Amino acid sequence: MGRDKMWLDLDGTPLIEIVARRLLPIAGEIIFSSDDSPRLDALVGRLPVPTVVAPDVYRDAGPLAGLQSGLQAARNAMVFTVATDMPFVDHTLVTAMIDHCGDEDAIVPRIRIPGLDEPQPEPLHAVYRKSCLPAIEVALSKGRRRVVSFLDDVHVCYVEDSVLRQLDPDLHSLHNINTPAEWTAVVASLRRETPDRGS
Questions:
Q1: Per-residue pLDDT for 36 more than 80?
Q2: The whole model's pTM is what?
Q3: Domain limits for position 162
Q4: What is the mean pLDDT of the chain?
Q5: How many structural domains does the chain have?
Q6: What CATH number did the domain enclosing 63 receive?
Q7: Residue by residue, what is the 3-state secondary structure of 141-193?
Q8: Nearest to 122, CA basis, from 132, 114, 131, 113
Q9: DSSP characters for 63-80?
């Protein structure tokens, strides 16, 4: 993309705020796992639920460190984690994932990708309980940075592709942005959702 995706701008609203606001119907709190606290401070004040910025405890350790800091900062025992570049995240799908599973430590989508034999987990559109923290911290202490690196050490409910597609046939909610052309298409789609955005 060539720049920090969370600050991509749509008519004065950064992408990170767009994603956060789509989750407000189910959010008791919002945690931004980021070291960009100065820029996020203004956003914290604009959201109608308790919102905090949680900088990484484990420095330079990638998204797994972000998950650790977010879970550690959470007031609630269960946290939905989403990548900042998923502009179509849908709170109804998140609720359905939770309802599909039980009291596992993690609820993780598993999707089929053309060319791969096995379905792949999507750990940045997933639900985690604070009970995952010990396994995450062990993984980080051993230098394992992949977000999925701790999943074998906790109880996971995988929500399969076929279940997800019952509510989201094209898995639109899990779509992420990787190129300027994709962002242009997302902007057009979001403006169609909210026609008065560009007025």
A1: no
A2: 0.92
A3: 5-198
A4: 91
A5: 1
A6: 3.90.550.10
A7: HCCCCCHHHHHHHCCEEEEEHHHHHHHCCCCHHHCCCCCHHHHHHHHHHHHHH
A8: 113
A9: HHHHHHHHHHH-SSSEEE
